[in-house]
Amino acid sequence: MGKIIGIDLGTTNSCVAVLEGSDPVVIANSEGKRTTPSVVAFVDGGERKVGDPAKRQAITNPKKTISSIKRFMGEKFDTVSTDINRMAYSVVRGDNNTPRVDIDGRMYTPQEISAMILQKMKKTAEDYLGQEVNEAVITVPAYFNDAQRQATKEAGEIAGLKVRRIVNEPTAAALAYGLDKKNADMKIAVFDLGGGTFDISILELGDGVFEVKSTNGDTHLGGDDFDQVIIDWLAAEFKNDEGIDLRQDPMALQRLKEAAEKAKIELSSSTSAEINLPYIMAVNNMPKHLVRTLTRSKFEQLADRYIQACVEPCRKALSDAGMKASDIDEVILVGGSTRIPAIQALVEKFFGKTPSKGVNPDEVVAVGAAIQGAVLTG
Questions:
Q1: pLDDT one-digit tens code per residue, 134-153
Q2: Catalytic residue among 55, 70, 257, 264
Q3: CATH architecture under which domain 223-304 falls
Q4: Cα dihedral sign for 183, 189, 192, 197?
Q5: Of the residues 173, 266, 296, 367, which has the maximum number of CB atoms within 10 A of its CB?
Q6: 192 catalytic per annotation
């Protein structure tokens, strides 16, 4: 009997887990990372890169690097025009008014691109388990409609996976915390701040079954915005000194982006981060370096409007569920951006209780999917 793996197919990052005995194991990819960027790149000579190698050349190969493909899954071309305009790659109208990604005249469906990411997750699991994997549980946002769920299932099939079940992300997170085993009815808030999206879901657990009572959020709020405020700050500092905007140079921008993300992550555990980018640019044939210290308080000030933007969706979700903050028994954090201390403080203040942090927020959804997979294996 083969194992059923659990896959969190995210907008920005994906993650795969499996149950070994009764312990969930989050599997590291070939680069040694426990999450894989949901990025696919086509490079000259027709070679394909998936994950970190694709992300590393995103800014220097923008037209052939595909990120955030999840935004197009199961959608009609007409309804995603704002998203299409945000992408550096070309999205065109295909058959039945569906969006297609155009790479050198070859049209890919969103399912085909997602399948490339799923294939990498499948291979990651196979390398770890030493056996073939043919079945998976894949998670989706609670608000996904039937077409979006069907598209996710199709992507799995293209990748060579029989999708045994599609599970809602907040439900998977609650499973990872074993809340269904507590033999108590409860009300749960799942606060999910990912790389590109923010979702707040209110769940009700009764008789071991989770029901999604309400969902809210912002489909364009997440870690990428926090990176961008640091990029803009660094660029402004450099422009002040040298009179040149680094954002106009793709190579410099790629380095700025990587440095910004690294600093942001560092500031979740330290109160300041050193940013040191030697030879970022030559000005009049003189090499220029960018060296700055970013403090946590400065970062929080730069990012404040994005942090505060999380409040209103939480209010709406509670109101739609007919609940008050004090009715919530358990608050779960999902997504790497919930590591930001200011976000944790905001959640704690809003719900009036300390959120559960026992499971790694990047991995909690994949872990829940793996637990569901083990249940289906019986």
A1: 999 999 999 999 999 999 99
A2: 70
A3: Alpha-Beta Complex (3.90)
A4: positive
A5: 173
A6: yes
